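Dear support,

Our group has been running a series of protein-ligand predictions, and this particular one with magnesium ion is the one our PI (initials K.S.) wants archived with full inputs and outputs. We had some confusion internally about which version of the output was final, so please treat the block below as the authoritative record. The input we submitted was:
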Amino acid sequence: MTSKKSVIGFLYSGKNLGKEEKMFLELAKKKNIELIPINIFKRIDEKEFREQIKKCDLIYNNTAEDFVIEYIKTIEEFGKKVIDNSRLYYYTEDKWMFYVKCQEHNIPTINTILLSENLNIAKKELEDFNHWPVVLKRVVGTMGEYVEKAENPEQAVRVIKKFWKKGSEKIPIIAQEMVLSPSYRITIINKKIVQTAIKTSKTWKATGVHGKTFKKFKIDSDLKKIVDKVVKAVKINICGIDLLKKDGKWLVLEVNSEPAFDFFENEREKLVDLTLNFLKQACINQKNKKAHYKK
Ligand SMILES: Nc1ncnc2c1ncn2[C@@H]1O[C@H](COP(=O)(O)OP(=O)(O)O)[C@@H](O)[C@H]1O
Ligand SMILES: [Mg+2]
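Confirmed final output from the archive:
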């Protein structure tokens, strides 16, 4: 027999528990889930951390901090399951690999090339690519911080140098066709579509959720097929898929782990609730699996 209560470690980051974290804790209580908050911004003693983790049936990562990946890998090494697991970050973290993945799975995406580290060669590659203005991006980055456009090869080289200087690291750069379109966000929980939001912006870059109003949009049958393919390809349970539209056709821009739940404040609790339901089921599955191996 397995015990009734589900114990879930809840990774978060910040000075205090935020509004959404409090929602998680309150709703969890009602569902007979013991949520143990673990703040990765606090000092962590490895021994204590291990003991805390061992008490949990599974761990949920609710922080979008890049730093969290090392804690996730540590927890996995302790033998516990993390949602979403560290392997799944591979395609959300690396924009080039995401493009390659899309190509492999016939998922419509934006024309992209990986540029040479040698900037003279990169210039020639951009000339051959011949999409102006071109969007340049570091293969890793969030919040549009390392995403800029260039009108010509010389300007592109300046942007690349700027990225490398700013990040104090020569991280590979991709070049992408610019598609002028609002950004369409689809939020996925437990591999199902739970929300849509159009992100419009005064500039060509539409990032973040702050200080904007959002509208919903309809999922047509083409889009449904694309989303199913993306979910199957990246295997991530909880994510935000961003798409652009070109000449009436959907193009997948990227998949984000730990998607924002606050596009619509009045639906935030619903998304937290759906996440907890999913986590509870995942706990039960974990326990059953363990019981099975014990036999
Ligand atoms: N190829 C593109 N064409 C037009 N706009 C783009 C393109 N790539 C990115 N953008 C805009 O820039 C924003 C940030 O780019 P994105 O690839 O999502 O990087 P990040 O991971 O930093 O959010 C997007 O939300 C979109 O509004
Ligand atoms: Mg983005």
